[in-house]
């Protein structure tokens, strides 16, 4: 899995994460690599006994949900792009996890809207909301996490690991989860700040609760909730 060359046809590959459907001329094979984003995986594996629920915000092909569902986590995945979501469902089926991972074709934000996304046909995990001319042909559903809490049936006693990698919508997704953050005591986020900016992400977090915040790798921080703001 060290090759960085895309396949010229659709393929099924096996890695130590699981079995994956990889679309031709994409970087899907890279996401399926156990050592991809190794800093994030190393952090998760180091703390794996501290959590029992994994929320995958920006799941793409589902590699993290597949990895953690095999570690007996309850996994909830969100992926707004139709083509990625279809690949995610195929991968859950290939790994016999369709009944263990709940997947939503939804993006996370700070309001319930329909929005156009730019689909990156090669680096499929880099698809992002169209903030410029709104002419992209991918119309996706965006929801606040708070609006889905009743459907998700997450108990307040659960120990939750929430990964947010939503290509510049991280702060919006956090604001859309404000009630969740206030009401649930045991939450740790892993947040990619590459597009949103680390200072902006930290500032938003600090308006929602007191967090222990630290560096995971060059693009990600962790934020462990300590207490609500008095």
Low-confidence stretches: none
- The overall pLDDT average reads 94
What Rg do the Cα atoms give?
Answer: 17 Å
In the residues, how many domains can be counted? 1
Side by side, the strands of the main sheet go 5-4-3-10-11-13-12
Number of strands: 13
> Within the CATH hierarchy, at the fold level, what is the topology?
Rossmann fold
In the CATH hierarchy, the architecture is 3-Layer(aba) Sandwich
Number of helices: 8
Looking at CATH, the homologous superfamily is Vaccinia Virus protein VP39
What does the largest sheet look like?
7 strands, mixed
Report on the structure:
With 230 residues, the protein is an alpha/beta fold. 26% of the residues lie in helices and 27% in strands. The protein has helices spanning 28-31, 38-46, 63-69, 82-94, 149-152, 170-175, 178-183, 198-208; strands at 11-14, 19-22, 53-57, 74-78, 101-104, 107-108, 113-118, 128-129, 138-143, 160-164, 187-192, 210-215, 220-227. The strands form three sheets. The chain has a seven-stranded mixed β-sheet, sandwiched between helices. Helix 3 (63-69) links the parallel strand 3 (53-57) and strand 4 (74-78). The longest helix is centred in the middle third of the chain and has 13 residues, at 82-94. The model has no long low-confidence stretch (mean pLDDT 94).
């Amino acid at each position: 899995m060290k090759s960085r060359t895309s396949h010229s046809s659709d393929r099924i590959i096996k890695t130590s994460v699981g079995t994956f459907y990889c679309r031709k001329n994409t970087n899907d094979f890279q996401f399926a690599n156990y050592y991809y984003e190794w800093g994030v995986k190393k952090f998760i594996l180091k703390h794996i006994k501290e959590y029992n629920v994994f929320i995958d915000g920006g799941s793409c092909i589902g590699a993290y949900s597949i990895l953690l569902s095999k570690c007996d986590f309850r996994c909830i995945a969100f992926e707004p792009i139709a083509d990625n979501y279809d690949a995610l469902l195929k991968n859950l089926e290939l790994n016999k996890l369709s009944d263990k991972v709940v997947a939503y074709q939804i993006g996370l934000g700070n309001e319930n809207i329909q929005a156009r996304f730019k689909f990156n046909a090669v680096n499929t995990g880099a698809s992002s909301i169209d903030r410029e001319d709104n002419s992209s042909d991918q119309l996706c559903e965006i929801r606040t996490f708070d609006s889905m809490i009743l459907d998700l049936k997450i108990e307040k006693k659960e120990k939750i690991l929430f990964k947010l990698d939503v290509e510049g919508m991280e702060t919006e997704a956090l604001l859309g989860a404000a009630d969740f953050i206030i009401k649930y005591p045991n939450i740790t986020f892993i947040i990619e700040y590459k597009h949103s900016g680390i200072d902006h992400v930290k500032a938003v977090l600090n308006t929602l609760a007191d967090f222990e915040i630290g560096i995971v790798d060059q693009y990600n921080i962790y934020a462990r909730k300590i207490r609500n703001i008095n």
